[in-house]
Amino acid sequence: MAREMWKGNEAIAEAAVRAGLEAYFGYPITPQNEVLEYLSRRMPELGRAFVQAESEPAVINMVYGAACTGARVMTSSSSPGISLMSEGLSYIAGTEVPMVLVNVMRGGPGLGNIAPSQGDYNQACKGGGHGDYHPIVLAPASIQEAVDLMPVAFELAHKYLNICTILIDGSIGQMMEPVQLPEMQPVVRKEYDWAVSGAKGRSRHVLSSIYLDVPTEEKTNLRLLGRWREAQENEIRYKEYFLEDAEIVVIGFGTAGRIALSAVRAARAQGIKVGLFRPHQREPLPVQAGGGTVQAGPILPGGGDEYRADAQGCAGGGQKPDPGALLRAAGGRDALPG
Amino acid sequence: MVATLVNPKNLVYSRPIGFTDTPTHYCPGCTHGTAHRLVAEVLEEMNIMDRTIGVAPVGCAVFAYNYIAVDFVEAAHGRAPAMATGIKRVLPDRIVFAYQGDGDLASIGMAETVHAAARGENITIIFINNAIYGMTGGQMAPTTLPGMKTTSSPNGRDVETQGYPIRVSEMLATLDGAGYIVRRSLHDPKNIRLAKKAIRTAFEAQVHGLGFSMVELLSTCNTGWGVTPVESLKWLEEHMIPAFPLGDYKIAPSVAALKF
After folding, report:
1. CATH of domain B28-256
2. Which residues from B are below 8 Å from A206, CB to CB?
3. Which of A176, A253, A321, B31 could form a disulfide with B219 if both were Cys (CB 3.0 to 4.6 A apart)?
């Protein structure tokens, strides 16, 4: 299939369709509107479900309902919208049903702005909603990576009965790049032994996140943790650049990782022994992978202190980063220093 | 076991198949049990239990899934119509209903309720209006009557500072997407029979794809109201019905033409 010029948000939407997306629910918010708009045409054309809901809380609970049927279901939003969805995301995690969330981050806190940002790193990677759960988070740095990760996202969500987030920022959502879209997969509706569909010829299924009995809640938490550890074992995705002889290692994901690669190449051209470690997957963290190869992590493009702490984990206990050396890109500001 | 001891010819009343044998957690005298039973009877009589999915609310009926014997999901507070929408859009040939109280439906979930009706979402909502938050201990609800004492309006609902009750059926009836919106009461046998007929009509409307259907059921909360079960039925009749008149607020011609 030929490479074509696609806008990030639209390419992600089409890739989701080709990955077998059965239902999309959304609400307008910049900079992810093109996902909603594209699917408002594309989903009905294919006889699949599309609803523009009245609010993000309604969106995520429509997703929750559809997820309980075992369908491949997705929504997309941006930072304030994700905050509004957080309660529902927690219910989805607690009920152990699969969904894909596309989070096109923008500047914040509050209403913030509509410029690209990685400021929601902590919210996106550590759960966001209440309770003990972590979503699986994939962090593409290009439109090609994003579309390649869409089928993976649905597979991971179903495999681990969890939320799988595609975490990008407004720049990937809004830019255009040549991209080769994945092949169209047929929609295959499976009968899952946990899903609701009407109790025909089987005992009835009840899906809930209530565990009033404390030991049962604990067991549920441990079950979620067990699946999480399984994902940590099996689902690590990252890319390394120039690490063989690197004396300085830059760690960055998404757009920041991509910008960092340009900086690393420029530095290499000047003879500086610098490398880049770029996780494709922010959660579970590629700790083991990083631990084996990364020597130190003094320069960290992207968000705040929590990201630095996680990056240190990636670096496998290398030298303590100097906060003064952090290259910050919060609040929608360009990650490149002025 | 009862069936083995009673001559089937003499059996005029038993637990519907649509009801599990789990004892309910409801307070003695509460009308939730009656409403549950009516839903179970209707689903059984229509022979649609094996293609029905219920959505339980947050509130006293949070455990509705323990009693009505169909596939069930448990929604977040107020979000049952959204969750029902998600299920129905993916499985349009299934019957999807939400069962919600007044705090759930008319306060925190009002937007979801109004927009599900406005979209003409082909789902059914059973709306229990007992003018109080039961599960959390009797606080003021969006349907609490003016002057009514609750734990959060201890001197009686003061409309100057706490506003007026919301009449949901009247409001939803203004929406073009609503196919069947009626209010019934559970305070005596005659009205319970009328309520059952309305629930049947609502589900028939959904089976025939005729849009959003809601049956509002005036109900009691003798515990929250601080009266005996018998007094609560009388209180409902004397105080709630004047404030929330029983009647048919929206019956689309296609629903009116249904034969069953």
Report:
1. 3.40.50.970
2. 65, 71-74
3. B31
